[in-house]
Amino acid sequence: MIKITAAIFCVFSYCCAVQGVHVFWYKALTNGYDLTSNPGPSLPQGTIVHEGKIVTSFHSESVQYNDAGFMVGGGPGAWHGFSAGFWSINLDDSTLNGSVDSAFLCGEVTDGWMAGNAWNTAGQIAMQIGVADVSGGIRRYRGAENIPENALWINMSADGLYYDSPCLINGTTTLDTIFGQNGRLQGYPLPSVLDKRFRRIEVTNQVRYILSNRGNFGIVFLVKVGANNYGMACLYGDETCSWQYQPCGGACINGSDSPWTSDGNTVHLVLYGDIARTDKAERRDGASGNLKLSCSNAPNPFNGNTVIFYAAGNHSNHGSLDVFSHSGSLVYSAKVHGMGSLIWDADTMASGIYHICLTVGRNTISRKAVLLR
C-alpha cells in the first residue's frame, strides 16, 4: 500500500540557490514537529522544509506482500527479504535543481513485534540502492496530486516499482550495508528497547540523479532474498499521520512504548547543498533567511587540521560552528561571533567527508570538508 496526501503547506517561495540543510518531510510544519529535538531528528535551526507528498512502501517478492511504511532486511531465516521505496513530490519537481554535497533517508525506528517475529533484528542488511521510474504508478491516479493517502499500488511489478532489479536505472545504483539492531524480540508486556532511535541511509547519488533529470523517480532499497541478509530494520512511515500505539493482546505490538513520534510519520530526506528551486518551502521557524553568512575552510582536502573561516553577518551576531561526520555525528563545536577563523584539529578523526555548519539565529549554512590520511 502506498499512501500520500494532496496539500503542500507553504509560506515562502524561493527562486534562487539556497545553501544549507534541506529536509523533505510530509506535513513537518503543518503538524508542528520539533525538528531540532534530540533525541529526535536533530536538525539545525534554519533548516529549509519541503513538506509536500511523500510515499513510503515496502515489498517482499518471496511472499508477494506489499504494504505502506519502510522495512528492509532478511528477517529470521532470511527467506522473505523486504525491499523498500521512497518518493517525494517536492524532490521529483522538475524545477528543483542544484548541487548536492550529501543526502540521507532518515526515520525513527519502530520497535514492533508480530506473531513471533521482531520488526528489528541484529545482522547485516546488504542493499542495492538505486532510482526507479515510477511514472506508471503515478499515471494510474492521473497525476501525483490526485493520489490519496491510502492509495494501493495493485500490481507493483506491472509499473516497474521498487523491488525488481531490472527496474533500477543504469548508473544510479550504489551498494550499501547497514546493520540491524535487536529490538523487542518478544511480545507484550516486555518493553521496547529502541525508543526514540533514528536511522539514516545515504542516498547522495540517487538524489543527484533525480535533481539532474526530468521524470517521475523514486529511490529504491533493494534487498535480495538470502545473500547473508539476516538483519531487519523498520521505520515509522505512516503518511496518513494516524498511527496510535496498540499492544494487541500479546499477539502484536505496533511500535515502541515511548517513541518520539505521536502520529507515525517520520520517514524523511535530509539534503546538504545548494538548491535552486521554484517549489514552495519554508524555514523551520519561519525565518526569512536574509542574514548573509559565509563559511569555508583551507586547505580542503586536508590532513590533520584545517582553518575554518566564517562570517556571521556582523560583529554583534553570535552563533555556533559545528562539524558533523558523514554519518551525522557531532565531532566539533564552537561558539562564534562576527568574522574570524579557528583551527579544527582533526588528528584523531578518520578519513572521510565532514560537514561544517554555521548557525546564527534562525539561519544555517553548511560546507563540505574532506579529510585525507
Structural class, from secondary structure content?
mainly beta
- Measured distance between first and last alpha carbons: 47 Å
Number of helices: 2
Overall pLDDT score? 79
Could you tell me the number of beta strands? 25
Oligomerization state of this entry?
A: single chain
Low-confidence stretches: 1-17, 153-166, 285-289
Shape descriptor reads globular
Order of helices and strands: EEEEEEEEEEEHEEHEEEEEEEEEEEE
The tally of domains stands at 2
Q: What's the Cα radius of gyration?
A: 21 Å
Walk me through the structure.
This protein folds into 2 domains: 12-283, no CATH class; 294-371, Macroglobulin (MG2) domain (Immunoglobulin-like). It has helices at 135-140, 204-212; strands spanning 12-13, 17-24, 48-50, 54-60, 65-68, 70-73, 82-88, 97-108, 113-114, 117-118, 123-133, 174-180, 198-202, 217-222, 232-235, 252-253, 268-276, 280-283, 294-298, 305-311, 318-325, 330-337, 339-345, 352-360, 363-371. 46% of the residues are buried. The chain is mainly beta. It has a 7-stranded mixed sheet, covered by helices on one side. It has a 6-stranded antiparallel sheet with strand order 5-4-7-14-11-12, covered by helices on one side. It has 2 helices and 25 strands.
List the helices and strands and how they pair.
Elements: E1 12-13, E2 17-24, E3 48-50, E4 54-60, E5 65-68, E6 70-73, E7 82-88, E8 97-108, E9 113-114, E10 117-118, E11 123-133, H1 135-140, E12 174-180, E13 198-202, H2 204-212, E14 217-222, E15 232-235, E16 252-253, E17 268-276, E18 280-283, E19 294-298, E20 305-311, E21 318-325, E22 330-337, E23 339-345, E24 352-360, E25 363-371
Parallel strand pairs: 2-3
Antiparallel strand pairs: 1-18, 2-17, 3-18, 4-5, 4-7, 6-15, 7-14, 8-13, 8-17, 9-10, 9-16, 11-12, 11-14, 19-20, 20-23, 21-22, 21-24, 24-25
